[in-house]
Amino acid sequence: MKTKKWSFLLLSIILVFSLAGCSGNENGGNPVKQTSQTEQTAVTAEGQEELTPEPGAKLLVWDGKDGVPFLNEIAKEFSDKYKVPVQVQEQGAPEQMKKMKTDGPAGLGADVLVLPHDNLSEAVAGGFVLPNDFYEAQTREEFQETAVNAVTKDGILYGYPRNMETYALYYNKKLVKESDLASWDDIISFSKKFTDVKNKKYGFMMQLNNLYYAFPFFSGFKAYIFGKDNTDPNDIGLNSPEAVEAMKYYQSMREILPMEAADATTDVKTALFQEGKLAINLDGVWNIGNFSKLPFEVGMIPLPKFPNGEIPKTFAGVKAYYVSAYSKYPNAAKLFARYVTTQEALLKNFEKTGFIPARKGMENEPAIKANPMVTGAIEQFKHSVAMPTLFEMQQVWAPMANALELIWKGNDAKATLDNAVNSMKEGMKTLHK
């Protein structure tokens, strides 16, 4: 009897050591940790833990036209390093959202998507993106807080941030000094002297009937869109006393920009700026490339303080990588999303596409430092908030566009905002029927 017990014990010991030996030799000799039934990790030469791709993994990645050239390049690097084939296909964000609803469940969708953050609510509701769980701590630590918040829904981090977009002040250095942009009062004072409507010369211009660009006036007067940091659609703050004060100040600026709101289009002000007839242009970072090629030097600086001493916040848009919930190879997909958002990868992406990285500290990179407009944009990112991702936000844009036009015309700010908010509330009721 004792012999049988000893034999069984010896066999158990041999089996344990055999299993330990097998697990220690996978992944080229790197120690591997089994974290769940499907998730394995390996320790890199730098001592960092990373996911191990599933056996036979292959990936399909979707991105818009502007992101494909970089992805083709980085996909080859990733494939060479991890022996995981990566196919890149051009798909715009709207197409990605539509196709994931049908191609995802059918097993034909991408493993990795690239989406603007305002698509996140729909993607989560549709159940086709996985949380950024394994690399969550690193993402929260290494990326701009605004970017992290933008790709988080109900406290769960989903995205792997790539780049941030916002807007700030471009200015023609031949026409205006940076000292004339120290405050909004300074901008108004300069514009009063410079503006010459007959000769189509303007000191300052912005798109006037779009909440996206008008938001700094609300934030600069401590007004808000939705309560609880844009998470409570039942609390709309766009007709609060602070919002009314913001719109009164906004309305007063017609003195330096005497035109109808509908006439201050993107095309009009871009043409005026390029012709040297507009000194200060409130516009987006996506024009940095175009404005770098003009025959005069262009600067870009963050929005200055309002007369109340508040620094206004701009809206930020964040594009990020997301891992599909339908992916057969989630480990490989998460590893890829992390790989293409490392500091080295995002710097390459910037050099190739001009996308401004959402990572902290990138303004110190020589390639970025060399373009003062980019560093100015990064400074503005520090004073920005992610556009709300709530479904209810879709009911805000049109009423506010109408309200901004009416307020610019001279209509009563309080009554106009009250009407706009009532219209929003009626629209939101239809969402919940």
UniProtKB/TrEMBL annotation:
<dbReference type="GO" id="GO:0015768">
    <property type="term" value="P:maltose transport"/>
</dbReference>
<dbReference type="Pfam" id="PF13416">
    <property type="entry name" value="SBP_bac_8"/>
</dbReference>
<dbReference type="GO" id="GO:0055052">
    <property type="term" value="C:ATP-binding cassette (ABC) transporter complex, substrate-binding subunit-containing"/>
</dbReference>
<keyword id="KW-0732">Signal</keyword>
<dbReference type="GO" id="GO:0042956">
    <property type="term" value="P:maltodextrin transmembrane transport"/>
</dbReference>
<dbReference type="InterPro" id="IPR006059">
    <property type="entry name" value="SBP"/>
</dbReference>
<comment type="similarity">
    <text>Belongs to the bacterial solute-binding protein 1 family.</text>
</comment>
<dbReference type="GO" id="GO:1901982">
    <property type="term" value="F:maltose binding"/>
</dbReference>
<feature type="compositionally biased region" description="Polar residues">
    <location>
        <begin position="32"/>
        <end position="43"/>
    </location>
</feature>
<feature type="region of interest" description="Disordered">
    <location>
        <begin position="26"/>
        <end position="51"/>
    </location>
</feature>
<protein>
    <submittedName>
        <fullName>Maltose ABC transporter substrate-binding protein</fullName>
    </submittedName>
</protein>
<feature type="signal peptide">
    <location>
        <begin position="1"/>
        <end position="20"/>
    </location>
</feature>
<keyword id="KW-0813">Transport</keyword>
